[in-house]
Request: fold
Amino acid sequence: MGNHQTHWVHSGGLTIHAVTEGHPDSTPLVLVHGYPDNLQVWDKVSAALSQEYLVIRYDVRGAGKSGKPRKTREYRLSLRLEPGKTV
Reply:
């Protein structure tokens, strides 16, 4: 994997763990995992795609290294999509 970088961004009151791979000037491509996975589910795919794209992937709220909401209602779909705008 080339140019692998870890990022920590704030979204909806939580800290979100994100990783970018590839050349920063390449076309960005965002990969989002489902539950109960984390961003590592994309490891092999990301390695291949980062040869041509800037691959951006992140742990959704409550998964992997991202912050865990305290209340069930904080897992709403609208809130789960919010980090994608920030990342």
The chain has two helices and four strands.
